[in-house]
Amino acid sequence: MRVLFISILLLSLQGLSFAQSLNDTEQSILNSVDASYDDALEFLIENVNMNSGSMNPAGVQALGKRYIEAYSNLGFETEWVDQSEVNRGGHFIARKKGNSGLKLLLIGHLDTVFEPDSPFQKAEMTSDTTLAGPGIADMKAGNVMILYALKALNEAGALEDATITVVYTGDEEKAGKPTSISRYHLVEAAKQSDIALGFETASGWDYATVARRSSNSWNIEITGVQAHSSGVFSDRVGAGSVYEAARILNRFYEELHEEYLTFNAAMIVGGNEISFDEEQLKGSMSGKTNIVPKKTIIQGDLRYLTEEQGERVVRKMEAIVSESLPQTESVFRFNPGYPPMAPTEGNMKVLEVLSGVSEDMGIGPVEAYDPGRRGAADISFVASYVHGLDGLGAMGGGAHSPREYLHLPSYKKLTQRAALLIYRLIQMDEL
User: Fold this and answer.
1) What is the pTM of this model?
2) In this structure, what CATH number is given to the domain that contains residue 324?
3) CB distance 220 to 278 below 8 Å
């Protein structure tokens, strides 16, 4: 499947009107979102002002308590999943069980990249249309969207027989290791669901995410013969570890290029005496220009669109690494991280439902966003179990920077669209 890419167009909300194909319940849902908009913004600002950096367990837990209260008031069963085993704050889960319609999993995350020592800590209006704050777009606004969309459905009496699970992870920005533990409850929730909807930042009105590339790391440790530089390239000394590193990286660059694949070599440390901390991603070295270097370490990133692509590329990387220059030896290690969310027919069908909602609201059709322009996300861990769609959250920009902001004029309309998407899916028995 060829995923379409067109430049993002942020449309003005002025002049948009609802089409006549919305039924009375759907119009009631839209009215409820409208009526609660000020409350939603107040709750969002409270969220943003609570530090919940990935490595601040107490902050993540404090924010989770606010959602325990909010979802309990909606009649959901709530649970806090401890994650101290992987040195993280934990996950929030809310469940509502019914007997009809497609079973939904709604995904958000409580944590941000801004730890307590960051100078960026509070929400602030920076213009008439932008509300800035740490994690506001990625993705506290998306979390609030889910809550207030469900509130609107509840007020319209549309949740009575629905089965919905909400999972807000506490470590999306820096997942606890191993992910078999930190993502266990998310995966188990997916196994009991039909469709997963992710509320990461939206890529404009016209797009949603049917596919995401993986996010993994790789490491190469190269050993050579330490000797006087006058002997380099001789049968006894060979090429040294740095030349072998250069050979490997050049071969990667020449032979691995293909669509939706990236293989960034991010860090390299080489010399006679080196140290490298993989957890903190810090290294140091010492040596002299007249000594052939004994050891080199390369650390990199690998992203691909499908498991088949990943398996094939890793085999090719291993083969290239194994062809060592004289008197060198290299060990390649692939470190799985976030799996890919491959484009599937089921994902496209969910997109069709969203597009129909969008057109009925007078916003216009929605197309698949280019997966090469999106990073990995929690929905990728469940992509092999359920149909899915991501990028349903708020519009904004500057994520992971002190310029992060929410585009306010679009926020209410996107919440309304999300609420109608959820409503239509829980009315369906199959896609």
Assistant:
1) 0.90
2) 3.30.70.360
3) no
Q: Is the dihedral of CA 175, 176, 181, 186 positive or negative?
A: negative
In angstroms, the Cα distances linking 389 to 192, 200, 346, 381 are: 17, 10, 10, 13
**pLDDT value of position 156:** 97
Residue 19 within any structural domain of the chain: no
Q: For 10-19, 230-239, 321-330, which range has the lowest pLDDT when averaged over its residues?
A: 10-19
Number of Cβ within a 10 Å radius of residue 116: 12
How confident is the model at residue 21, as a pLDDT?
Answer: 85
DSSP per-residue string spanning 52-98: -BTT-HHHHHHHHHHHHHHHHHTT-EEEEE--GGGTS--EEEEEE--
Regarding whether 232 and 161 lie in a shared domain, the answer is no
Give the SS3 label for residue 292.
strand
Range of the domain at 181: 24-212+341-427
d(CA 167, CA 198): 10
Domain count, the chain: 2
Q: Please give the Cα distance from 327 to 427 (Å, whole number).
A: 66
Note the pLDDT tens digit of each residue in 166-211: 999 999 999 999 999 999 999 999 999 999 999 999 999 999 999 9
Q: What is the pLDDT of residue 9?
A: 27
